[in-house]
Amino acid sequence: MQQWIESWFHSPVGWDTSYGEWSVLCATITWMIWKARCKRVFEAVDPNALNIIFAALNYIQLYSTDKPTVAPNTQLNIVRTWSPPPVGFFKINFDASYIINNDHIGIGLVLRDYMGVCRGCKMIPSSSLSAEEAEGMAALEAVKWAKALQLQQVYFEGDAKTIINYLSASTIARQIGWRTKGHLDDIQALTLSFTSVSFYYVPRDVNSVADALASRARASTSEVLSTSPPSFIFAIPGYAGGKCPRILFQTLIRGYICTSATRKP
After folding, report:
1. Which of 32, 42, 195, 236 is an S-S bond match for 152, by CB 3.0 to 4.6 Å?
2. Is the dihedral of CA 232, 236, 240, 243 positive or negative?
3. What one-character DSSP code corresponds to residue 87?
4. How far is Cα 113 from Cα 55, in angstroms, rounded to an integer?
């Protein structure tokens, strides 16, 4: 334990400073380990090593002076890069996977909190007659999920401009299909029960996690709800802002083993 803590004050050779100051990162990871242990003891939630690392990285990013910001556009609410929502808010990214001449679609949803920690994922197989309707259905499923979880302050992000344009009401949306309009009108009715709701357009690469979940859902025959992130999304660059450096993973494992070794039976 002592040796591990002493290593905080000496950055490893080749450390990429873009991930932040080494000592700050180590201290934040330790705090996240402690929080994970508390959840294990009091809520019976098993810790996930990579989730702890990403939570630490996002926490540092959240309170840094140069963290990514939401860039509004006069025509559409646009997010240029993925970032956690403000403190007290949640963010749901949604997407649909659709193939022409095949009505079988997949819907992918990922819920994350203000520290960027994944709080749940949904993969929903369904059917649709168009890509536009599929995206509208994905947006509706995202809002219904947030309502079922009794969330009050939520950001929704998707990569379908027409859908976000209609829901954000920033401009007059172009003509959309009556099927799609029915889903979007249902969304607007549901959002009246929330304290704060915002819809943002994101480029496809920023929405890569929801996209991957949607693709998996299209190949499935039943809905999947997971309270922890599926293992395959950790390799997606868009998850938690990027890939996790191996040295961070090694540092976390060392710290987790050290703190676990001190636990009394």
Report:
1. 195
2. positive
3. T
4. 10
Write the CA distances from 30 to 18, 37, 55, 181, 258, integer angstroms.
20, 11, 11, 48, 11
User: Among 96-110, 225-239, 249-263, whose mean pLDDT is lowest?
Assistant: 249-263
- Best CATH choice for the domain 90-235 from the list 3.30.420.10, 3.40.50.2300, 3.40.50.10860, 3.30.300.130: 3.30.420.10
Give this prediction's pTM.
Answer: 0.67
Residues counted in the chain: 265
Q: Identify the CA nearest to 156 among candidates 181, 141, 135, 139.
A: 139
Domain segments of the chain: what residues?
1-64, 90-235
Residue 157 pairs with which residues in a beta bridge? Answer: 93, 200
Instruction: Tell me if 167 sits within 8 A of 184, measured CB to CB.
Output: yes
pLDDT in tens, 125-175: 999 999 999 999 999 999 999 999 999 999 999 999 999 988 987 555 557
CA distance from start to end of the chain = 18
